[in-house]
Specification:
Number of strands: 55
Radius of gyration: 27 Å
Distance between the termini: 56 Å
Oligomer: single chain
Number of helices: 8
Shape: globular
Helix content: under 10%
Strand content: 25-35%
Structural class: mainly beta
């Protein structure tokens, strides 16, 4: 039976709702308050529970309920959870909104106020001599950190799993500090890999499945003394990274042994790697190290710490989880400083994130799994250890669309920890849309796409695919029944190593990459500017196998090549697609009806239509053109001064030039972000 106090709160709540249908939450609220403007709640959990109480008394008020969250800092020491019972209705949604000039901040971290120079002789002995007197330490127990999260990382091909591994991070004035590493920039290469070299690849460079390799360096003696040293590398392929824990170092052999579980693809000579999580390598401004034994953080600051805001993330779980709830609105809120993912939404329908910020997480920003009709509108998602948004909705078996939308979002500075296959949007399912977004500064791709009937349009993307190779700003891979996907009126520019500085890992990056049998994709009316530098193996569009792809009405400017192909043999194609239509994940008859060309799936492999494209100051229209390519009305202008820009500048677009070069149909001035109720453009 409810207590007298609880009944009193419900009674006050009903009186308040009859007048205004709203609650208030404030950092200065109290546990016993009724949630009025004068006596606000202290937490979102109180508001959630009050709404549950209202629903138990009857139906929601007309127009729904608004939870006004006042500005300020809200410590998040546990996940805020919503379930199906917390749903609104289409006519009466539940809205959690920021109510003030500044967004309320929900933080999974704590601020560190006091630093001192280390005096522990054991610590000073491990620090590089050049860093002594420049590295500062903080007592984390004194700062309010109850327990430290063990340092463990994975990576795409790591044996520990490609998922979010919770990790504490240090931020100074909003910028993430780098875990102490060597070299401070770039990579070094593995030496000989002791046999047996049983792993053989197409490039004839063998490798071994065990984690052991030689590396001649005087640094090994110091590494051997580190309690939890790790190495990050591309151990076999330039697109498959992982973090490997050092198990032991043989100084006589100059050989490093790695702890199991090992990298999924094995190891071989002359692959790039660097060291991480070693106090002995804390030697550059912006680096830090977490000492689990002493419960201290060591920081080599870039600037004076006296006036700096220094925070460390703690919460090893999402800041918010929504399971099965529908008709919710989150408006003008900010989540930050999580040691895992930001927010997760599963199932439900018609939930909207509008004008929100998700930043400074060790994992993904926002994950949406299943459900239908969810919207992420005009949000800023940035400074993340993994990807921006994971978006899955719709049923591939029935081709029922998910109807999810990501629009007008600014997504940037991602892939800080897991650096490959952690894009701005990881898109799957059926019938979802990515529109009018600005994406930049991502080690990985902008969009990783799988599934059917998606629309990706009017996005601007630059400075992505910055580290891994054999990828694109868009990456699709490995399924000939992914059909109905359209890339239309997007602007791809300054991708990967567009300046052609250096050779390693720089020749296989594209604007849109259709990899391993991707078919039936329409690439229409896009602009590709400086997306692949000479020398290159990839064009602005790269097609590896596959058929029935259409590249039409696009503009390519200052690229090494416009379109490149990697044709498959008939035998390879037929073997790959032999059972594609019998995949239990799809309905064969439905797919043949929806996509009639699947009836001739095994025939005319490599077929592609490249039509009506304008190619300006590119070295070539095609790389590795083959007989199955149908090329119609493509126009090359190798000496033209049209659309000319310098350095990293955006394209110099004019309606007159667009008409003269046959690309007036591209709505260039509509691409990217726009002003709305949630986003004000300067």
């Amino acid at each position: 039976m409810p207590s007298f106090h609880a009944l009193g709160i419900v009674f006050l709540t009903m009186l308040m709702l009859s007048a205004g249908a709203e609650f208030f939450v404030s950092p200065h609220g109290a546990e016993g308050n009724p949630g009025t403007k004068e006596q606000p709640f202290l937490t979102l959990e109180q508001a959630r529970d009050a709404i549950r109480a209202v629903k138990q008394q009857g139906t929601l008020p007309e127009g729904g309920i608004v939870v006004n969250v006042l500005p300020g800092l809200y410590p998040a020491r546990d996940t805020f959870r919503l379930t199906e019972e917390d749903s609104g209705t289409a006519a009466s949604p539940i809205t959690y909104r920021g109510a003030g000039a500044e967004r309320p901040r929900f933080t999974g971290g704590v601020r560190i106020h006091r630093f001192a120079l280390p005096e522990d002789e054991a610590v000073l002995a491990r620090l590089p001599e050049s860093a002594r007197g420049k590295v500062w330490q903080a007592d984390l127990a004194e700062a309010g950190v109850a327990a430290l999260i063990p340092f463990e990382r994975g990576g795409f091909a790591g044996g520990r799993g490609f998922l979010t591994h919770p990790e504490m991070e240090l931020f100074v004035d909003g910028a993430p500090m780098t875990v102490a590493r060597w070299p401070n920039d770039g990579f070094v290469q593995t030496g000989e890999v002791p046999g047996p070299l049983t792993l053989v690849s197409w490039d004839k460079r063998p490798g071994a499945e065990h984690g052991r390799f030689r590396f001649e360096s005087e640094r090994l003696a110091r590494w051997a003394e580190e309690p939890n040293g790790w190495l990050y590398g591309y151990w076999f392929w330039e697109w498959a990274d992982s973090y490997e824990q050092i198990a032991g170092i043989d100084l006589e052999k100059q050989e490093i042994s790695l702890a199991e579980p090992w990298h999924r693809y094995g190891y071989r000579k002359e692959q790039r790697f660097h060291a991480v999580n070693m106090l002995c390598e804390l030697d550059a401004p912006g680096e830090w190290y977490l000492d689990h034994e002493r419960q201290r953080a060591y920081l080599y600051p870039k600037t004076d710490l006296n006036n700096a805001v220094v925070e460390i993330s703690m919460l090893a779980a999402p800041l918010m989880q929504i399971e099965g709830a529908s008709h919710l609105r989150f408006q003008g809120l900010l989540w930050e400083c999580g040691a895992a993912d930001g927010a997760q939404l599963r199932g439900g329908e018609d939930c909207r994130f509008e004008g929100c910020v998700i930043r400074k997480m060790a994992g993904n920003g926002l994950e949406i799994h299943g459900g239908n009709g969810h919207v992420v509108q005009s949000c800023d998602i940035h400074t993340l250890g993994r990807g921006g948004i994971v978006l899955n909705g719709g049923d591939r078996k029935t081709l029922i669309p998910g109807g999810h939308l990501v629009e007008n979002c600014h997504i940037h500075n991602l892939s800080r920890i897991d650096r490959t296959y952690t894009p701005a949007v990881l898109l799957g399912g059926v019938g979802n849309r990515i529109r009018h977004n600005l994406v930049h500064d991502v080690s990985s791709s902008a969009f990783r796409v799988g599934g059917n009937d998606h629309l990706i349009e009017l996005n601007e993307v630059h400075r992505v695919v910055l580290e891994s190779d054999d990828q694109g700003a868009v990456d699709m891979w490995g399924n000939a029944t992914f059909r109905g996907i359209v890339f239309r009126h997007n602007y791809w520019r300054h991708l990967g190593n567009w300046e052609a500085t250096g050779e390693a890992g720089s020749k296989q990056r594209a604007g849109i990459r259709l990899d391993d049998a991707i078919s039936g994709v329409l690439i229409q009316g896009n602009v590709f500017q400086r997306v692949c530098a000479t020398p290159t193996h990839f064009g602005g569009v790269q097609i590896h196998g596959g058929k029935d792809n259409i590249v039409e009405g696009n503009l390519f400017v200052d690229c090494g090549a416009a379109v490149s192909f990697s044709a498959w043999s008939d035998e390879r194609w037929r073997k790959f697609v032999a059972d594609a239509l019998d995949d239990p994940a799809i309905d064969r008859e439905l797919y043949l009806q929806r996509y009639p060309k699947l009836a001739q799936l095994e025939e005319n492999h490599n077929a592609a239509l490249v039509r009506g494209n304008a190619v300006v100051r590119c070295d070539t229209l095609f790389l590795r053109e083959h007989d199955a390519v149908e090329s119609l009305d493509n126009r090359e202008y190798p000496e033209s001064d049209a659309f000319k820009t310098e350095g990293t500048e955006r394209l110099n677009w004019s309606a007159e030039e667009a008409a003269r070069y046959g690309v007036a149909h591209i709505p260039f001035d509509q691409i990217g972000l726009y002003e709305d109720a949630w986003r004000k453009m300067r």
